[in-house]
Amino acid sequence: MMGRLLDLAPGVLTEIVRALSEDIFLAASDKDLYRLALTCRRLFRIAEPFLYTKLVCPDLRQAKLFLRTILEKPAYAAKVKYLALEQGDEDEEDDDHEEEDHEDEEEEHDDGNDDGEDNRGINTMEAKELAQLIEAYDNLSLPENIDLGRDDWISALKHRTYLAIGAIIALSLPNLESFEIVFPNSVEDSSKFIRRAIQAATPQNLPSVAGRFLSNLREVEYFQAALEFIIPLNEIRSYFYLPSLRTLEVNHLEADAFTWSPPLTSCNIETLSLESAGIENEAWGVLFRSMTNLKHLSYSPGSARHFNSISAVSALGEHLTLVKSTLETLHMSDFYLGFGPPEDDFLGSLDDFPRLERLSIQIALLIGSAECKAEKALWEMLPRPLEDLEIYLEHDHDVEDREDVIEQVAEVVLRRESQFPGLTRLVIRSRRLQETGRTAELQEIQFPGLRSRLIRSRREQETGLAALQEICMVKDVKFLELFYE
């Protein structure tokens, strides 16, 4: 029996345990059931404080149950540090089931009341549930504005709008540290409640609520599952004002030229990840001027057909210098080059970035392609503090890498002792390498003009990796293969 119980979904099992612990006397006529109920009561007393330490994509029913719980026992809300929401179809399915239940109840209890049509769809249980949701909202004491007032929230709660309930949950968790939200559909359809909730937590926007909400939030991730939709900058703008936030990850973000309102001269975000994004040239400048503590940046551009504008690589490189004094990690890949003037495809040199230790980059952004080569060699464009280097070769079929690309990388390794004494890891990623074993990979990679320089090696016949490791004492050099659909 226990084996079958443990096979149940956690939410179902929790409801069984809760029901048996609360209605123990209903099981008294059955000794086995009564014994199980006693056990559940003991377990529930121990386990209940930990049931909500991490809320991962609760469906509508679970979300409402949680709000009821924290109304009854507010201390439980203080234990939650991670919340993940997913805008899905669970609310519609939940509504369908509840409507069927209401129809059954109306058929069984129809007493011919003339006022039945006015009260149809709202029974005692529904009224109590709605009252609890409204109480949870009123407990927040959110300031009203023209765009979204109390009536709008109550209307959303009556219609069981999932993200409205999710927004109330987020603001009800005083120690929330990590927040994730997944949008399978258009963000704009129902995200205004989340957006308003974050605005309410922003001291610059609403000084009267400073420190009351999300004061411990450190990590936020927004994920747009359908790439035909975008996440406008306005959806995540308020996060930059949160003093506690350190990590912001957003995919498919669109940011055209904008200004901060209210003004933002400094923010505490240290890690910014923008994957498959469309950022306009001047938007980078506005972002980076305010990011005075940025340490880790990851960026890949999205498809041009989804965005109004995508910045040139050169414009990004120009604005990147605004954060060079703090930047420690930079990841840039999946760029499609060759659609504009050749000079637009150059990022520029990173040699004067004093703290940049980890670099993962499409090599053409630094040294150019076969059609347009940079004047400087790769080793001249890398930062001296470099410890971890990951190179991406030949991403785009339309733009060929330079014929000396491997020699450029090898030159970096050979200059390790004098130029990059901290370099301990090098990874070269390429579609060209066949996954046929380490030796075959090394034979596949050629080092043009390099063999004569490896004459000092006692293992001259083992060209490539082994020789470089012996001469330069690099701890970890790998050649990996990337597969593209």
Compact description:
This protein is of the alpha/beta class and 485 residues long.
Explain this structure to me?
The protein is an alpha/beta fold and 485 residues long. Among the domains are: 1-51, no CATH class; 357-485, no CATH class. Helix content is 36%, strand content 15%. Strands 1, 2, 3, 4, 5, 6, 7, 8, 9, 10, 11, 12, 13 and 14 form a 14-stranded parallel β-sheet that branches. Helix 2 (10-22) packs across helix 3, helix 4 crosses helix 7 and helix 7 runs antiparallel to helix 8 (150-158). The longest helix has 20 residues, at 90-109. The chain is elongated. The two termini are 47 Å apart. Residues 1-8, 90-112 and 433-485 have low confidence and may be disordered.
Helix and strand layout, with pairings?
Blueprint: H1 2-6, H2 10-22, H3 31-47, E1 54-56, H4 60-72, E2 82-86, H5 90-109, H6 116-119, H7 124-140, H8 150-158, H9 162-171, E3 178-183, H10 192-200, E4 219-224, E5 231-232, H11 233-236, E6 247-251, E7 253-255, E8 271-279, H12 281-290, E9 296-301, H13 313-320, E10 329-332, E11 358-362, H14 364-367, H15 378-381, E12 388-392, H16 405-414, H17 416-419, E13 425-430, H18 438-444, H19 465-472, E14 476-481
Parallel strand pairs: 1-2, 2-3, 3-4, 4-6, 5-7, 6-8, 7-8, 8-9, 9-10, 10-11, 11-12, 12-13, 13-14
How much helix, percentage-wise, in residues?
25-40%
Quaternary structure annotation? single chain
Number of helices: 19
From the alpha carbons, calculate the radius of gyration and give it in angstroms.
29 Å
Whole-Å distance between the termini? 47 Å
**Uncertain runs:** 1-8, 90-112, 433-485
| Overall pLDDT level | 75
Class based on secondary structure composition and strand pairing: alpha/beta
Q: Report the major sheet.
A: 14 strands, parallel
Please state the overall shape, judged from the principal axes of the Cα atoms.
elongated
What's the number of extended β-strand segments? 14
β-strand percent reads: 5-15%
